[in-house]
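Hi support team,

I've been running sequence recovery on a batch of backbones for a student project. Most finish fine, but this one hangs at about 90% for roughly twenty minutes before it completes. I'm not sure whether the input is malformed or the queue is just slow. I've pasted the structure tokens below so you can try to reproduce it. Let me know if you need the job ID as well.

Thanks,
M.K.
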């Protein structure tokens, strides 16, 4: 499958060098998108078997705002969802945690009355948290700890936490600004049923992007915002000082993929989050929330929506954001790879119009 998008982007960079793709994502949707992105890169790479250019490289900058300490262990839900998803060892039904999981240790912890009865750490999953926590306690940074964990599998992508600082997403659920819950408690314990007044990223002002993140953004030929929650996943990554600026300064086109289809999220709680910040719960509303690269603070050069929302293409393009509509349900890696193909074509349009 010759891909005009890839060629156009490659002209942008050194034709012989592998194309560098950097994607910003959360966990459950991010894992599905990363699998499709890898499938696409390998498919294009295979089609070019006799060709010189090496297959593209993929770097996933993953949200760490869901991270928390539990039973003395550092739990990184989104990093683990993307890692398990790319490794093919994830629980496909739940979208998080390990396939074939058991919960014997968690039951014992409850019997001892420790831990959170609303957040279950499976036995296999616990090994990840124990190994990660051991490395962190030895002074290893989260980037290196993630690399060591991921090196057990051949993921076909590099995983980077957005930051090595503990910047936890918290949700203000009451009138008083101090009345906040960790995001995971708001979502897992209360299913986002408590109206969110505000989302906070505790610790963000003193945080910096993790080592490698700014290079992965500046050196990319293509920058993609995965169809993750624009507030608590993509938004939490953008809350790390320097990342939004790096995306705006990057030479590569920034293409976002809508997490909202037909006015609703596919999984998770993006609708509740968007309403809480006064953004419209629609594909166009998310594009307007993220903003056009031509607007102050804005990010998007292109915005990919589902065919259901094809009627919003003109509204999004009126902001100077190039838009297209294709099927966005990531039900198989091949279908997700088709979405990635559409991202490349949109990026090629952006590059051609410059
Ligand atoms: N989600 C739940 O709904 N219930 C759980 O008990 C739960 C445990 C859990 C443990 C480890 C982990 O990495 C993720 C876990 N999740 C659980 C999913 C988690 O809420 C999501 O992965 C994201 O953080 C929210 O999108």
């Amino acid at each position: 499958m010759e891909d005009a998008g890839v060629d156009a982007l490659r002209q942008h960079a050194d034709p012989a060098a592998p194309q560098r793709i950097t994607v910003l994502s959360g966990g459950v949707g991010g894992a599905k998108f990363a699998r499709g992105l890898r499938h696409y890169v390998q498919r294009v790479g295979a089609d070019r078997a006799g060709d010189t250019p090496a297959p593209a490289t993929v770097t996933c900058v993953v949200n760490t705002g869901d991270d928390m300490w539990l039973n003395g262990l550092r739990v990184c839900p989104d990093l683990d969802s993307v890692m398990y998803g790319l490794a093919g060892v994830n629980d496909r039904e739940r979208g998080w945690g390990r396939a074939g999981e058991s919960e014997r240790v968690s039951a014992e912890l409850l019997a001892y009355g420790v831990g959170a009865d609303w957040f279950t750490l499976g036995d296999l999953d616990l090994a990840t948290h124990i190994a990660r926590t051991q490395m962190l306690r030895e002074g290893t940074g989260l980037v290196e700890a993630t690399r060591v964990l991921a090196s057990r599998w051949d993921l076909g992508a590099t995983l980077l936490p957005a930051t090595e600082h503990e910047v936890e997403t918290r949700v203000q659920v009451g009138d008083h600004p101090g009345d906040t819950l960790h995001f995971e408690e708001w979502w897992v314990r209360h299913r986002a049923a408590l109206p969110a007044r505000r989302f906070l990223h505790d610790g963000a002002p003193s945080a910096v992007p993790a080592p490698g993140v700014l290079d992965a953004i500046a050196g990319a030929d293509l920058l993609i915002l995965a169809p993750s929650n624009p507030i608590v996943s993509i938004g939490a990554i953008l809350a790390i000082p320097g990342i939004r600026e790096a995306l705006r300064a990057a030479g590569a086109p920034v293409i976002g993929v809508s997490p909202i289809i037909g006015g609703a999220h596919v999984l998770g709680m993006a609708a509740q989050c968007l309403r809480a910040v006064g953004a419209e719960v629609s594909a166009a509303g998310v594009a307007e929330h993220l903003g056009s690269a031509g607007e102050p603070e804005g990010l998007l050069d292109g915005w990919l929506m589902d065919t259901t929302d094809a009627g919003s293409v003109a509204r999004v393009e009126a902001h100077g954001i190039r838009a297209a509509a294709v099927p966005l349900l990531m039900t198989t890696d091949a279908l997700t790879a088709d979405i990635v193909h559409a991202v490349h074509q949109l990026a090629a349009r952006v590059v051609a119009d410059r």
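--
Follow-up from support: It reproduced on our side and the slowdown came from queue contention, not your input. The radius of gyration is 20 Å. No action needed from you.
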